[in-house]
Amino acid sequence: MEKFVCKESVGFSGLFSKTREVTRNNGLNGSFPKIYRFGLAPIMCGIIGVLISDHTQASALDQSGQSILPFLENGHYFEANAFAVDASVSGVVHDRPNLVRANQSRDTGDIGQNVQFYTAALKLQLTDQFSFGLLYDQPFAAKTAYPLRPNNSYSDNDFSQEGTSVNVESQDLSFIFGYSPFKNFQIYGGPVYQEVKGKASFRGMAYTEAFNGYEANFKEKGELGWLAGVSYQIPEIALKAAVTYRSKIKYKFQVDESIFGEPLLYVEAAKTTIETPQSVNIDFQTGVAEKTIAYMNLRWVNWKDFNIRPTQYNALTADYLDELTGGAYKEGIDLDSYQKDQYNVTLGIGHQFTEKWSFATDVGWDSGTGNPASTLGPMKGSWSMGLGAQFNPAQNYFIAAGVKYYWLGDAKSEDGAYYLPIDGIKEMAEQAEFKNNHAIAYGLKIGYHF
Known about the structure:
Blueprint lengths: L11 H13 L20 H8 L24 E12 L2 E3 L21 E11 L4 E8 L4 E4 L9 E2 L5 E2 L1 E18 L2 E17 L6 H4 L2 E21 L4 E8 L2 E5 L2 E4 L2 E2 L8 E5 L2 E11 L2 E10 L5 E2 L2 H14 L11 E2 L4 E11 L4 E10 L6 E2 L7 E13 L2 E12 L2 E4 L10 H5 E5 L2 E13 L1
Parallel strand pairs: 22-25
Antiparallel strand pairs: 1-3, 1-27, 2-26, 3-4, 4-8, 5-8, 6-7, 8-9, 9-10, 10-11, 10-13, 11-16, 12-15, 13-14, 16-17, 17-20, 18-19, 20-21, 21-23, 23-24, 24-27, 25-26
């Protein structure tokens, strides 16, 4: 279920952070006098951070991008971030009598939703060799809602007066311990506590009479994972590089499934296993000219191994496909899943114009997780462009803001059966086409060195 809330972690946080890096490392505080070869100053990092930490229109459920940049700050440091996303996503349903009521427009209406999310970080330099960080994040999310339309394709005008929708929320706390065995090199890692909850509702002819009115409610649950990484810095040239791995986190949900509010007990109740994906982030930045810094973020997320298949839904779809195929296929289908892993790239540059003001810009690309895509998130990756600015009232704190525009990739949507090994299923499973969609994300950050 690709969330329609703009996602691109190589977004604002990164843009904020890089702008602050150029300013802070300028040597105004006397920490790195050699940095004057580039003329960098202690402002630039914040902008890069705000652009890189907004992954809101990335693939699948990816929202924040799980940036580690705050932990790489020098000394004691605190930051807080707020993000908002305005997405516009619509499509046209295929002209088939089982999908659209006669003599009605095939337009889906705008299914994109406005979304806000937040992150924060605290980093403490305990000694020259040991450091500790606490990162709060909202890494995964989805929010899509089909409006009521007379075509009844993804809405129910006859009984519930509701449209198809999905809402997934998550939050986590990363406890990071860092150790520097020698100058400029650091290894780090620690536990991650994560909470997830969600709800999906199917409405309309697209889900057949059997599943119109189906709902799955995943009550909030918390589990543990871990992260580990290494970083290397050369302060004299504003070089900073880091590789961070985050583990998958396994949940066992007791999912409340129903049809129009009536509990669904088709088979004996059992827990549903879901794993939020493992990922790798690679961050790199370096001074390239006087008062100028270049930066890059690469991100891989293992969405191909992610799926959601609640117990009752699995049993119902298995019987439905058994009857449809005359016994040739007896298994159920996923409520949601992805066919490919996500790859995300952001490249940017920041420049300090005055002792108090810095600006940055970057471009981003997201691969998407397969096409056709789920009706709960019909997009195939994106291209993006971001702009950010940072103001330093004093050398030890700053305010940064950024905006990023996303060109969302065109995609066909399918009902979950498209990829099954059943002859002729692909044409039946395709339902709509989504083209020329976009999203705009906004970010605001405050940072303080103490």
